[in-house]
Structure formats: structure tokens, C-alpha cells
Amino acid sequence: MIKLRHLILLACVVVSPAIAVEPPASEVSVRELLAITQSRKLVDSTMGQVDAMMQHSMKQALAGQPALTSDQQTIMDSMRTQMIALIRADMKWETLEPMFVDIYMQSFTQKEVNGMLDFYKSEPGQAVIAKMPIVMQNTMQAMQARMTTTLPKLQKLQQDAMDELRASRAK
After folding, report:
1. Is residue 118 within 8 Å of 29, Cβ to Cβ?
2. Can you give the C-alpha Rg of the chain in angstroms?
3. Are 101 and 34 contacting, i.e. CB atoms less than 8 angstroms apart?
4. Contacts of 89 (CB under 8 A, 6+ apart)
5. Nearest to residue 32, comparing CAs of 121, 149, 94, 92?
6. Which pLDDT tens digit goes with each residue over 55-96?
7. Average pLDDT of the chain to the nearest whole number
8. Is the pLDDT of residue 115 over 90?
């Protein structure tokens, strides 16, 4: 009898965490969260920032190089235009939304999504939503500035490694 009680108690302890697991977020609630946080607008606004960052990176890459001829500049402009078109096509909201929905559904419980919905519907939540594009823009600008100092260091590391490779081949 005592063994049976212990077995039942053990079964309850083992099974109760499985019962207490929160259900995953529903697709409907995740889509509502993505809509209220204006995720589509944030993704779309990022594309303009990507273009500006790409232009800046190309200028940095060509710094110290002889000036491009008009034909070379046309080639570079064409490449940038094609790259942006490719990124826009591959990263458009219609492509990303199902991915976001799946990720949110796998990552958050319904209770957590409900809490986020409550927050984002509140005045402070609306302030976060309204200011997030500015935060993202300022972050991108800060990252570009940071890369200005990091890029030469990366190039130096690359050059040093190439020099070492050449030296090892010469031996």
C-alpha cells in the first residue's frame, strides 16, 4: 500500500510539470502582436537604411583608391541597385511575416503574447512603437560610425594573414 502511494505521488510530481506548461501562442494573437507593433512598417523602413549603409560601405571600400571612371561608377551603381532590389525582394514583409509568426509561436506562450499585447496597447507601449523607427535609425548610424573604426582593423588583420600566407608559401 505504501509503495502504491509513493508511486502515485511520484507520478503526480512527474506529470504535473507537463500539465502546467503554458500553451504556445496562437497564430491569431501573434499576427495581432505583429500588427499592433507595426512590424511591417519597421521592416519596410529598414530597407532605406540598408541602402544608405550600403552606399556608405561602398564609399569606404573605395577610399584611397583612384577615382572611378564614369563607366566604373555606372557599374558600381548598377550593382548597388541590383543588390537593393534583391534584398527588397527577399526581405519583403509577405516573405518574412510567416517566418516571424512561426518564430513567435515557437518562442512565446499565449500568456506572454497576451502580456505583450496589453503592454503595446498601453500608452508606454505605444511610445515604444512610435519611437522604435528612430531608435533603429540611430542604431544603424551608430553602427556605421563604429564600423568606420572597426573596418580598418579588420582590413589590417586580413592583410596580416595574407602576408603570413605568402611568407609561408615562400618557405
Report:
1. no
2. 26
3. yes
4. none
5. 121
6. 878 888 788 888 889 998 899 889 988 988 898 888 899 999
7. 86
8. yes
